[in-house]
């Protein structure tokens, strides 16, 4: 038994040496060699590849010969007027284009990092704002910084503020606040509306106008932080249930579990809600809450080029729309 284990161990050592040698050879192959190899197969000849790449045919022939030496593999059969790729060459060809794309992406990413573009950007969207046009800004970032990894997180407003403060997110789309913390900075985007609603089967739905006292005494479904020590925004009722997003809030309201405040845009995007929910007309104040949406960031965060680009883009938009 010991003898067989010794043989197995020796085989692994030999295999490791072979793989190491092969990897070192591959590491010596450069992007230009791969491009020439691909172009020869694409065009069908050394001379056509030379014309396509703006080189002399002898340079193409020499590059292919050196590649064959480096790989210890025949890539082309040189019989007749035009070289014919071997089966091994065709197998490698399938991977070459993908490898060239990855090399270009790597170079672009390295250039982006050297010019101050962050490798990733975390953007938090307050739950009630998922129906707004925030995706337009993500599309813009993707077109401007194609190598940037963008991570979108949704959270209640209080949690979004915490994420900016501890720098787990660099930017946040959120509602305006009455008081700003010292570390916050923002640029205003647009106005959005929230409306109080209740299921058509709820007892409050029978009233044309609802008194504020009735609101206080009825259970409210409120969108709030997961941290129960934080008081929810837009909380009116003495009895309330919490959820962290407006989708689950709307489902709970539809099932007659309480009244709540939802984005008006939800109703425009989903007409079915009109059949299930009623907008409450509150006697003591206007049943529509207008809030401005801000793009917020922390002054203490070291923002990269992509984040700064978006901030400046929105600022310029405001200047031109005034």
Automatic annotation (TrEMBL):
Domain of life the protein comes from: Bacteria
Pfam families listed in its UniProt record: HTH_1, LysR_substrate
Annotated GO MF terms: DNA-binding transcription factor activity; transcription cis-regulatory region binding
Family, per entry: Belongs to the LysR transcriptional regulatory family.
Identification of the protein by name: HTH-type transcriptional regulator CatM
Protein species of origin: Acinetobacter stercoris
CDD domains associated with the record: PBP2_LTTR_substrate
UniProt gene name: catM_2
Key words of the record: DNA-binding, Transcription, Transcription regulation
Domain HTH lysR-type: 29-86
């Amino acid at each position: 038994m010991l003898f067989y284990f010794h043989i197995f161990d020796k085989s692994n050592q030999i295999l490791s040496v072979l793989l190491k040698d092969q990897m070192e050879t591959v590491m010596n192959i450069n992007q230009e060699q791969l491009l020439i190899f691909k172009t020869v197969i694409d065009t069908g000849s050394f001379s056509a590849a030379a014309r396509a790449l703006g080189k002399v045919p002898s340079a193409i022939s020499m590059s292919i010969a050196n590649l064959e030496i480096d790989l210890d593999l025949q890539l082309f059969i040189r019989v007749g007027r035009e070289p014919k790729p071997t089966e091994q060459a065709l197998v490698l060809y399938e991977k070459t284009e993908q490898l060239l794309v990855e090399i270009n992406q790597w170079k672009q990413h390295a250039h982006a990092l050297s010019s101050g573009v962050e490798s990733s950007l975390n953007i938090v969207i307050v739950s009630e704002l998922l129906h707004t046009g925030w995706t337009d800004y993500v599309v813009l970032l993707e077109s401007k910084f194609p190598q940037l990894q963008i991570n979108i997180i949704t959270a209640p407003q209080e949690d979004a503020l915490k994420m900016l403060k501890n720098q787990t997110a660099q930017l946040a789309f959120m509602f305006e606040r009455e008081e700003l913390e010292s570390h916050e900075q923002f640029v205003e985007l647009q106005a959005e509306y929230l409306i109080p609603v209740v299921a058509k089967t709820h007892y409050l739905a029978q009233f044309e106008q609802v008194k504020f006292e009735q609101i206080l005494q009825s259970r409210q479904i409120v969108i709030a932080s997961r941290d129960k020590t934080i008081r929810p925004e837009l909380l009116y009722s003495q009895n309330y249930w919490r959820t962290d997003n407006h989708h689950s809030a709307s489902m709970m309201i539809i099932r007659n579990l309480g009244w709540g405040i939802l984005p008006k845009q939800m109703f425009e995007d989903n007409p079915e809600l009109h059949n299930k929910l009623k907008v409450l007309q509150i006697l003591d104040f206007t049943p529509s809450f207008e809030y401005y949406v801000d793009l917020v960031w922390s002054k203490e965060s070291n923002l990269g080029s992509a984040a700064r680009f978006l901030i400046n883009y929105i600022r310029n938009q405001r200047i031109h729309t005034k």
